[in-house]
Write the structure tokens for this entry.
Amino acid sequence: MNTIRKNTGEHREVSSYLGIPLIGSLPMDPMISVLGDEGRIEEYRADFLLEIAYMLEQLEKAERRQDR
């Protein structure tokens, strides 16, 4: 079962059919689908999330310093 397809524009068709606005879409790594289908999702490596988490931590620290 291929749950993640290349950008076919189907999301636009579905939102139009349902009469709801499409506010955005996110690209997905097809490996998420592959590993999920194989029951091995815990093997997915999302190293880019570590960088995002670090940036969020830095923002939080900066906000705390401003609140003092």
DSSP finds three helices and no strands in the chain. Residues 5 and 30 are 8 Å apart (CA to CA).
